[in-house]
Design a protein that fits this description.
Layout: H1 13-18, H2 21-33, H3 43-48, H4 52-79, H5 84-94, H6 97-118, H7 125-130, H8 138-147, H9 153-163
């Protein structure tokens, strides 16, 4: 933050237009995430105050980062399914229909198998590692990674931000 209260990472139309796709996605994520840094207990309240476009962007980006880092098991372990439906809406909004379909299936499996999956998750690293054994979400991870060959999330998401610039500036 600057001394006048303006966000030092403020997004403008000019900045959005000047950034590469990857840099744009990073800057938008940082811009949104800064709003709740240190206030994770209020995340749902803060996210609800974002524009619909920002919510969609945030939810799909968090899901993508978590799944790429540790699969759907990690996503649901860290995020539960608080924004899982919003992530589906985000994938649909950017035109990533195959990702939306896959995440819809993952959400359904997680909700049906939550007790079985969470049974091993006792808060320890070993419990988290054990939760990958016989996890019904594991098969979906490879499907997720393979979808990048069919739908470029970077391009689709950056195009979505650029088409909705006014909803991302501050």
């Amino acid at each position: 933050m600057t001394t006048n209260g303006q966000n030092s990472k403020a997004l403008t139309i000019e900045k959005i237009d000047s950034l590469t796709d990857r840099d744009l996605l990073f800057e938008v994520f940082v811009n949104v995430a800064e709003r709740y840094t240190g206030q994770t207990q209020k995340k749902k309240e803060i996210i609800s105050k974002l524009t619909q476009e920002q919510q969609a962007f945030y939810a799909l980006t968090v899901l993508e980062m978590e799944v790429n880092n540790g699969g759907f098991n990690q996503y649901y372990y860290n995020q539960e399914d608080e924004f899982a439906d919003l992530a589906v809406d985000g994938f649909k909004a950017i035109g990533a229909k195959k990702f939306a379909e896959l995440v819809t299936r993952a959400n359904k499996i997680y909700r049906e198998e939550k007790k079985k999956i969470a049974n091993k998750q006792d808060g320890s690293l070993q419990g988290f590692s054990d939760s990958y054994k016989d996890n019904p979400l594991n098969d979906l991870d490879k499907e997720f990674y393979n979808l990048y060959k069919l739908e470029s999330l970077t391009t689709l998401t950056a195009d979505y931000v650029r088409k909705n610039k006014s909803k991302f500036i501050n």
